[in-house]
Write a structure and sequence with these properties.
By secondary structure, this protein is an alpha/beta fold. It has helices at residues 5-21, 45-48, 55-67, 85-94, 110-114, 132-146; strands at residues 28-33, 36-42, 75-81, 98-103, 125-128. The chain has six helices and five strands, in the order αββααβαβαβα. Catalyzes the deamination of adenosine to inosine at the wobble position 34 of tRNA(Arg2).
Length: 147
């Protein structure tokens, strides 16, 4: 049974909430292929003391390990916040078929650096705005609580 984009973004939001509970910036991601979640991740930068431990990177690694493959052309990643340039590069090399993100990230998103040029594989489809307000509010609330 194929579930909706909304269902999978809710799963990414669940990952984001886990990150927030762990004191991490609340960003979450899930990788889906053939209606199955094959990778999950949430920010673990502080936990792992690793600036590359973004939600997308962790979800991608889990997906690669699940499949035993470095390419996931038939997969979709759902991520709560616009990927940064690093994560966009990883998504490019994965040849992922589709990227769906919730909120745009004016400060650190890939668009800030790349402008109109897409950093993704030419065949990758990009969509954004799904639960954008909820995704962005998690991040705003996280930083407001720390000020």
């Amino acid at each position: 049974m194929q579930l909706s984009d909304e269902h999978y973004m809710q799963q990414a939001l669940r990952e984001a909430r886990l990150a927030g509970e762990e004191g991490e910036v609340p960003i979450g991601a899930v990788v889906v292929m053939n209606g199955q979640i094959i990778g999950r991740g949430h920010n673990q930068v502080e936990t792992l003391n690793d600036c590359t431990a973004h939600a997308e990177m962790i979800a991608l690694t889990a997906a690669f390990n699940t499949l035993g493959s470095k390419y996931i052309m038939d997969a979709t990643i759902y991520v709560t916040l616009e990927p940064c340039v690093m994560c966009s590069g990883a998504l490019y090399w994965s040849k992922i078929g589709r990227v769906v993100y919730g909120a745009q990230d004016e400060k650190n998103g890939y668009r800030r650096v790349t402008g109109a040029t897409s950093p993704f594989h030419p065949k990758t489809k990009i969509e954004h705005g799904l639960f954008a307000e909820e995704c962005l509010q998690l991040v705003k609330d996280f930083f407001a609580a720390r000020r």
